[in-house]
């Protein structure tokens, strides 16, 4: 973990984090001079030290450098808290004491952070289905379906049979040819005799 920042280093890094872009020594100097009297070489040395410690990266631009933060302010604060906690001989007691010093707003933020770190809660698995009950229900349904099908088939078979016999015994007076040719033959024979008696020759 990078070493904790000094007071002036923190002031410089605060500007780098706030602007969230590559900055020059001149830009940081002019902003710091609104609060204190400070030399250009001092700011240049601080930024060079921050580069050596791994807090910023830099890229040459002409005869100067532009500096950009490597990590966020939140990561820096987390690193400080983790370092302090790891050095305690009783981490649980240290956490209790730290929680007691927090404001209600900070405690709410901590609870939200814990929920985010833990991720969404995994729902409990559903109990397995009762296979015996399902099997019994399927068997009953199959038996009932079989009984209904047989009753329906018998009824439907009887009805068409009765209708077909009734239709076949009646004479076919329409243009269609009936399957039973007996009624048609008798009708045709009866109509041929009168036609033969009326031939032109009188025979």
From TrEMBL:
Coiled-coil segments on the chain, per record: none
Gene3D superfamilies with a match to the protein in the record: 6.10.140.850, Winged helix-like DNA-binding domain superfamily/Winged helix DNA-binding domain
Compositionally biased intervals (Low complexity): 136-175
InterPro entries: BlaI_family, WH-like_DNA-bd_sf, WH_DNA-bd_sf
One MF annotation (Gene Ontology) recorded for this entry: DNA binding
A biological process term (GO) from this entry: negative regulation of DNA-templated transcription
Region described as Disordered: spans on this chain: 118-203
Keyword Transcription regulation: yes
Keywords associated with the record: DNA-binding, Transcription, Transcription regulation
Keyword Amino-acid biosynthesis: no
Family, as annotated: Belongs to the BlaI transcriptional regulatory family.
Protein name stated in the entry: BlaI/MecI/CopY family transcriptional regulator
